[in-house]
Amino acid sequence: MIKESQRLPEKANQKYTVDAGDYFIRYVPAGATFRFVDLEGNQAADTLFYNAHNPAERYSATDTIREQGNVYLTAGSQLRSNENNIMLEIVADTCGRHDTLGGACATESNTVRYDLEKRCMHACRDSWMLAISENPKFGLDKRDISHNINFFMNVPVTEAGGLTFEDGISAPGKYVEMKAEMDLIVLISNCPQLNNPCNGYNPTPIDVLVWEA
Ligand SMILES: [Zn+2]
User: Fold this and answer.
1) Cα 107 to averaged position of ligand 1 atoms, centre (Å)
2) How far away, in angstroms, is 213 Cα from ligand 1 center?
3) Which element (helix H / strand E) includes 185?
4) 137-189, pLDDT tens digit by residue?
5) How many CB atoms neighbour CB 66 within 10 A?
6) 187 C-alpha to center of ligand 1: Å?
7) Where is the DUF1989 domain (predicted)?
């Protein structure tokens, strides 16, 4: 569902640019609203959320899909934890649809999907691992890397019930905006994938804007 935001970028308290292939890890307090901007279009922002006070509580695709009765995420979606608490709500979305079924790229999946020689290519799971190892203050461990949201990524469900990776439906400047309903750790891998049409075979940067309550 397309829903524009009334928030002004110049009034944001924090602004970050996350380069293609880089990670982002930050605390975001309850009540804050934040926006991911797909600067050049067709990017995928592979994102995990945790309860800042108890990282064992984290974003759950299964709880979110079950409760909303829809596999796609968009404005109005409430993003739930593995304890079925509402962690965030998507409050604006100019892309229209985001994936939470496709998972994140890994050296192993690159090998299976594309070619044995792709094994050494940079992948989202490695970016998450680098983020948590370089930032021990968040208290995250390898076992906390779980299912994720692929913001801006187009993974339609076919009539037969399968999943396909398709050319993106995002475009330059499209954004998704969320309100934090609990104190959060936000962990993004701005996907470095070069083999997948979701990225337009060309990973590009995203912006993260935060408006504190
Ligand atoms: Zn990726």
Assistant:
1) 10
2) 31
3) strand 184-190
4) 999 999 999 999 999 998 899 999 998 888 888 999 999 999 999 999 999 99
5) 11
6) 13
7) 17-185
